[in-house]
Each structure stands twice: as C-alpha cells, then as structure tokens.
Amino acid sequence: MIHRNNRHTSLTFLFAAALSALASPSYAAPVISRLTPPSNPLVDGAATLARFLPSQRFDLQATVAPDAGANIVSFSFAVDGMTLNPTVGTTAIVTSGLNSRLSDGSATPANTAVVSLRGYSNAKAGMHSLTVTAVQSDGQRVTRSGNFEVVGITKQGKVAKNIILLLGDGMGAAHRTAARIMVKGYAQGKAQGRLAMDTFPYTGMVMTSSLNSIVTDSAPGMANYVNGNKANNNEEGVFPDDTVDTFDNPRIEYLSEYLHRLKGKSLGIVTTADVFDATPAANAVHTSNRGNGTGIVDQYLDDRSLTGLKVLMGGGRKWFIPNSSDKTSPQALNGSQRRASTDYVLPADIVAGWGAAPGAKDPGRDLIADFTNAGYAYVSDRASMDAAGTADKLLGLFSYSNMNVAFDKINKRRGNSTIVDEFGFPDQPMLDEMADKALKVLARNNRNGFYLMIEGASIDKQAHLMDTDRWIEETIEFDRAVKVAQDFATAHPDTLVIVAADHECAGAAIIGAAAAVMPPYPSTATVATYEAARFPHYTIVGDGYPQTTDVPGRMLIGYGANADRYETWLSNDQPTQDSQQPFIGTPPLSAHPRSPALRNVSNGFLITGQVPGQQAVHTASDVPLSAFGRGASLFTGVFDNTDVFFKIGQIVLGGVK
Ligand SMILES: [Zn+2]
To answer: Which of 150, 175, 206 marks a domain boundary?
Structure first.
C-alpha cells in the first residue's frame, strides 16, 4: 500500500516507495488530489474544518488521477478504520466531464476519476478519521486520509420550536447605525430611540470569510450559517469538486432539510430579492453556481419533500414563466428567463443518496402552475397576498427579478413616484408585510415548528451601487420586519430570532453631515466632520419612513470599498439599473443611470474608487449579530459564521438551561 499526502512519513512508506522504485524506475503512483469533506490535518492546533451535527448528511468524494494508461476500477471510504457499506446506487466513479485543471492548477491527467459516496451521516459525537482507498486497473492502490467532527448536543433544558433568521444582506455596523440615526434621531450624543434589532438582549460579532477567500459573496455567506461548513464563493450547500457540472457537487444537508427530516419542521423563505438569488437559495438549493436560476427555482419545488418548503416569497417571476422557445437573446417577450443552460439534471447517485428529484432541462415548464398543482396558493401583489387568508402553503412572486426597494415603494404609496410602475409592478408589499404573512401561514400548522429566513436583500444591492438613501431606507424596512419577528417571538416564547448579515458591503462609513444649510452640496468641502456634523434630523411620518432624506445638514456616507462614482450628496430620483431585470434594455428602464460612474455626471463630482469594476464590493469586516428569544444567550462574543449552525442545533435539539 502506498500512503500519499500523509502527515507523518512512515518507515512503511519509505520501504514501499523504495521497493516501487526498484521494481520500476519510471513508476508513477496514482494520486488523490482532493478528499471531501476538506480537512486541515497539516495545521497543528487548527480548528477542524468540516463539522456536522449528529446524523447530518453530507457526501464523501475524492479525485483520483491514475497512472498513464491505467484507470480507476474501484474505491472505498472508511471512517474510523471501518469500511463503509454504501446503500445501493449511492456510489459512482465519474471520469468524463471533469475540469481541465485540478484544484492545484495542474492539468487533469487522462482517466482521472471522481469517486463519490452520497448521503453519508454519522451520529457519534467527536472527531472521526476518513480514509479513501482507490484501486487502479493494474491492482495498485492509493489512499488518503482526512478528518471531520460531529459536534455533540447536550440535553439540558427547553428547546426552541421555531427559528427565524433575519438576514440583512451586506448589513455591517455602519448600515445599522445609519438607519438608527435616520429613523430615531440623536440629540446631545444619545440616540432618541432604538431599532428593533438594537433591543435584542444578546449581540456578538461574526467572522464571515468563505472557504477560498477572506471576502465572501452571498452564497457561502448564507450557506455557512445554515449547514455549518465553509463553502467556496458562488457555491451554496456544496463542497467544491473537480467536475464541470454545477449541480453534482458534494452536498451538505441544510438546517431546513435536517430539521424537516428529524423534526418535521417547515421551511419559509422571504426575500426582497429575486428568489433565485444567493441568500434565499442557500437555504434550500445545492449548486456550485449561484447563477443557475432555472434549476435553482425548480429545485425549490422539486425537493420540497426534503426541505419542507411551505412559504416562498420575493421577486423572480422571470424564472417561473414558461419559455417555449428557450431564447437566449433577445429576451423572451413574456419576460421568461428560463433556459436549458441554467437548468439541472442530477446524477443518479445524488438521486439515490438523497432522495432528490432527478430534475429535467425544461425551459418550457410552467412553474407557477406546478406550484399551484402542488397545493401552494399563488399571490402576485400586495392585494392578493393580503387576500390569501387561509393558505397553508404560499408562493408569492411580486416582480420579474429583484423587487423594487423601500425608497421607491414608499414614494409610490405616497403618490410621489412612479418608479415601481416603470418596472410593471405597482403594488409590491413591504418586507414587514411579507414577514407578517409568512409567519401567519407557518404558524397555522405549527405543531412541529418552522425555520423561516427573511432577507433584506437590497441593503447589499444598493450599497454596491453606493445609493446611500436607498440602502438606508432598505435597512429601515428590514428593521420593521425584525419587529414583526420579535413580536411573534414575544407571543410564542419557544421561538429564537436571529438578526445577522452574510458580510459587510461597500465599506460604508458615516463620515459626518452636510455643512451647508441647504443642498446642493457639490464637493467634499461640504462634508462637515466631527462637531461640525452636529445631529442630522429627519422627519419620520406615519408610514415609518422619513418624509424626505434631502434635509439640510443630512448625514453623509463614505465608502471604503468604492468604485468610481459621481457624488451629489443628495438622493437619486431614479434607481441605478439592475442588470437582472428582463426588460432592462428597453424604455423606461433603459433610461435609468447604468452605473454609479454614469449617474449624476452633469451635477456631481467624481470620487475615484480603489476597486475595479462598476460597483462597490463586499468587505471582510466582521458583522454584528443580535439574538432574541429562546437560546439567545448563546450568541455573544466573537464567533465564526459556521458556529451559528451548531448553536442553533444545540438550542433546537438539546435546549438551553
Ligand atoms: Zn450578501
């Protein structure tokens, strides 16, 4: 037996290697270039990389390159030295459709095999060793070892039945502070009120990095919270692999799937984004490409028996409308963006290992009809959402792609703006209204409880665009949804409410206020710093939002992760273009400014950025997390985003003293 990549070089290894060299001077051994789940046995004292709750399911996988002219004929996985006996159909050797390069950048040798055992789980708490052994056609064997940990649960008190996770996308400390300053006001150094999330009794700081970067995107940023493991950027619910297929990656069971399988809990997903977007999808869908919209929305329905999906609300109707011609360009006239190229078909071993639906490339699918045939009530605007009184399963799709933001929805309700009409969706609900509806539906059959994710998506999207007033009002809208969840938990004390962010966006900072008495403010000379900033004052009207954000002495925001922009220090009448809208190329949407560098060119001044591209970017800064209700006391200190999953597991399965 040849041991490769082992931490300790053994005498056995040296002896065997010497014998091999004698027997065949040009002899190369098969190489295992990847073992999944990833582990870090080479780092002494480092935290275990892969951790799971007891009986949480995940896939085992290895990439094996055979000698030239040989191929891999069999393999086995062993845990703690015991060879696993897989269930029929849950293993596979794949040699086609591989990436041209392996994870270390070297070219993929001919006949390289990806070997998998799907849907493994382990109930025993503690560290476990994992070993894969592969045999090539001449009988030569290769092994590689790693490890993973099963995090134990202590039975110790009252458990939480319901979990509500409110995810303010991109919401760093500055976003929270700016919303508080605007909506509550400050005087003589003290805030005149508190955001709902400020009133949560426990707050900690979260480290947000992904498996392959200090700076995460929203896919692992969400998934890390709800399956306990680090993922690569752009990947959700999976570990990285060496195949081209973006739906065949090694899976990790989500909180939703785990709690539905073990406890019969339901899943609710509510977002202001397109429902295919990374944050909502990273609660229920497994793919290494967050952009695969057609397959992602299909999986919501197809795998509802795995996730327990009861409520799905947000934007994204473009993925649900049949596209009979599968046009790639121009846009299908009905707004459909369903494509075979972004759809999914699963390999047989995932279907067998997980009980997942096989999927189909079906751009012509009428997914709204399939949802309603499966018993979901379908609502398309605020009025129909409010009228759906007795539904026990609900699909709400309120726009083609991402919903309009609070700034524009509120101004429409006040009769001040027709921006939402330009998008074709004049009656979109606010996030707090969606949250209230979702909780009513989920509570209706609440014997087993539920997990509900509520996302304020455009805190991030508008921070990327450095549209200050839009992301601050988006944070205010998000906090109103926090209040809805907090009220639910007050009435149902067996509920845990967490307010978190997947990452910070844009390096936002409150740099002061406008110095001049009235706008316009055409240069940096008008940024009043320190005591000159005083205390900006906004008038908050009955709907809970400022009458206007363009007040004298208004709060000013700088961006540490900025691209070029023209700044006026005033609100923008029009939103900046969202490339995901299907009709972005034609009027009236095409008339909106295309980027921050093409916005306010005539009346603003240029602030040059330090990142490439058209938008501000995410940062690696820690983000605040606040908790309320059953088990909230566990969320203090500085912890990793994956730790949140195990805290929730303890609170739901073991309880808190
Ligand atoms: Zn995000």
So the answer is: 150
How many A from CA of 418 to the centre of ligand 1?
28
Q: Note whether 272 and 458 are within 8 A (CB).
A: yes
Which tens digit of pLDDT belongs to each residue from 356-398? 999 999 999 999 999 999 999 999 999 999 999 878 999 999 9
> Are 327 and 360 within one domain?
yes
Global confidence as pTM: 0.94
Write down the residue that tokens 């009184």 correspond to.
389
Cα-based distances in Å from 576 to 337, 542, 565, 590: 21, 27, 12, 10
Q: At CA 80, angle to CA 78 and CA 85, rounded to 5? A: 35
Ligand 1 centroid from CA 627, angstroms: 20
Q: Are residues 398 and 299 in the same domain?
A: yes
Most confident of 98-112, 163-177, 316-330: 163-177
pLDDT score of 97:
96
Q: Which of 160, 135, 28, 146 is nearest to 78 (CA)?
A: 146
C-alpha span between 195 and 478 (Å, rounded) = 10
Q: How far is the CA of 236 from the centre of ligand 1 (A)?
A: 12
Domain containing 347: what range? 162-508+620-653
Residue 393 alpha carbon to ligand 1 centre in Å = 27
The CATH number of whichever domain residue 646 belongs to comes to: 3.40.720.10
Residue 194, pLDDT > 70, answer yes
Measure 656 CA to ligand 1 centroid, in angstroms: 30
What is the rounded radius of gyration, in angstroms, for the C-alpha atoms of the chain?
A: 26
Q: What is the identity of the amino acid at 341?
A: S
* Distance in Å, CA 86 to ligand 1 centroid: 37
Q: How many domains does the chain have?
A: 2
**Stated length of the chain:** 657
Residues 255 and 261: their CA atoms lie apart, in Å, by 10
pLDDT band per the 50, 70, 90 thresholds, residue 13: very low
| Residue 334 shares a structural domain with residue 448 | yes
φ/ψ of 120, rounded to 5, equals: -70, 150
- How far is ligand 1, taken at its centre, from the CA of residue 198, in Å? 21
E strand or H helix at 166: strand 162-168
Give, as one character, the DSSP assignment of residue 116.
E
Residue 516 domain-assigned (yes or no): no
CB 241 within 8 A of CB 114: yes
Banded pLDDT at 501 (limits 50, 70, 90): very high
CA of 170 to the centre of ligand 1 (A): 5
**Residue 255 and residue 309: Cα distance in Å, rounded?**
12
Span 515-543, mean pLDDT? 86
Mean pLDDT over the full length of the chain: 92
Distance 234 CA to ligand 1 centre (A): 11
Q: pLDDT band at 516, cuts 50/70/90? A: confident
Q: Is the pLDDT of residue 526 over 70?
A: yes
Q: Which residues make Cβ contacts (< 8 Å) with residue 610, sequence separation at least 6?
A: 561, 562
The dihedral through the CA atoms of 119, 71, 109, 147 has a sign that is positive
CA-to-CA separations, 132 to 34, 35, 76, 139, 145, in angstroms, rounded: 10, 8, 6, 16, 7
Say whether 382 sits in a helix, a strand or coil. Answer: helix
Average of per-residue pLDDT across 587-604: 95
Cα-to-centroid distance, 625 and ligand 1 (Å): 15
3-state class of 234 per DSSP?
Answer: coil
Q: How many CA atoms lie within 13 A of 381 on its CB side?
A: 8
Burial tier of 55 (Cβ tally within 10 Å: 0-12, 13-18, 19+): middle
Q: Distance (Å, rounded) from C-alpha 517 to C-alpha 479?
A: 30
Look up tokens 């892969």; give the residue: 50
